[in-house]
Design a protein that fits this description.
Largest sheet: none
Number of helices: 16
Number of strands: 0
Radius of gyration: 22 Å
Strand content: under 5%
Length: about 400
Amino acid sequence: MVSEKCFFYNYFYLLIYSSIFSNEVNKIILLSLLLFFLFFKKKQKRINNKVEKYYPEKLVLILFGLIVLSTVIFKPYLKGIDIYLYYLLIPLLFICIKKNGFNFSIIKSIKYFITSILVSIIILLVINLFLNKLTLSINPFFSKYLNLTHVYYGMFVGSANILLLILFLNKEKYLSYTIDFFIFLCFLIILTYIGARMSLIANIVIVIIIIFKKLSISFYKKILLLGLSLFTLFFLFTKTARFTKGTKQIMTIYKSSIKNDKEEIIKNSWLNMYRRYLVTKYTINEFKQHYIFGIGIQNVTTKISSKIKNDGYIHFYPINSHNQFLHFMIGLGIFGFLFFIYLLFYFIKETPNHSVLFIIFFIIIMSTESILVRGKGMSLFFLFTLSFLMNKTLNTLND
């Protein structure tokens, strides 16, 4: 008969491993763990009160409550609420883990996750090779066979790199320091190959931060070195086609907005940077009119896009705000937005050791993507963030 601990360990690490693959499978595993705790009768004595703190989990549950409230206030009522179930299920899982005195290894969790990324790369390489889809140029469609855009696959690969760095900074390793270094470079190559710009930039920025903190030189020399590093980074990106294309679009948009040349923007409103510009502009304008309660989290994409189309941008097609902060600001209003900011500050303040780099990575990504309105983004962010916070009280970083 399988012991309770064995069941929990296997399913918890499988939950981590499956996060990059099927959303449905990931949810089934998550629900299985919750059902396990529902029928599990605790045989051990209750653990001390310090360990039983549920404050971070309660914060996530409050955010879920604000999202539900938003969908209740605004029509269409409760539309899309199922998307946000991770805000409910994941904190409930961690409350159950703490309440029943279970434990798990952060290091094992990280290793299972990195393994899943390596497996996914091998799978995608084989599929793309078999279908003759491998190219020597940037390939944003590399990960489509996992039903992931290059942005979300970049989020997973970039996260794996940050977790490798966290292991290294805690004097731990995935396989060996040498092999880990080559895996890190491999992940950077994949990020470059698929064109996941923000994940790549976030990785490089965090590496610069680590080097900056480790160097025992004067503050002024650090500032000089940081400036040179950022300049070099910018110079290298200007040599890539996607970056150059995006930069040119931004400059053209800027000139058109200064001249109030609406016709030029209408003509190019199907292009990526133009769409982002229009969504940002109209989101801010809409927020000025609905800053208290927002427009409803379920209406962010449809309402903003509808206003853009109605203003004559005929080539525009709907996208979300592509900025997590703007998304919650217009969706939940000023109070929901401020609560989300508080949540992030709490996570940064309370996350132990070097693990905070994981949250910094996500915050950088959030500036250009609404990743916490997608199941995979929510799952990955909250699974590891709550694990790191749990590690602070349970001391579970080591095996």
